[in-house]
Specification:
Number of strands: 0
Number of helices: 6
Structural class: mainly alpha
Strand content: under 5%
Radius of gyration: 18 Å
Order of helices and strands: HHHHHH
Distance between the termini: 50 Å
Shape: elongated
Amino acid sequence: MRLVDAVKYRLPLAGVVSILHRVSGLLMFVLLPLIVWFFDTSLSSEISFERFAGAFVSGIGWVPGWLVKLVALALIWSYLHHFIAGVRHLWMDMTHSVTKEQGRSSAVVTLAASVVLTLALGAKLFGLY
């Protein structure tokens, strides 16, 4: 396969969801130490919770607060997309829905739901409501 052919190839929407499912799982795995720190710091005591909440405002060490929020937003997206895509796969396995049309429509629902929910939670994270 030549590079020109690879650039012209259009991946079906179900394929995009499948690749994003893998990317979101990898992102959650790579950021697992941060997730554990978030969880531990937020639940240990009132003082550590204040430190946790302050990380989103003043940052962590040399990392600014807005970057901490962006990483948290990436984690929110990865969890939501991975969960919704996993439910999609379970539903397809249980109902034996393997037609091309069904794969496309469930991929659209998966992408739309994960983006809309991420935007809603991201707006809350960045203080828009």
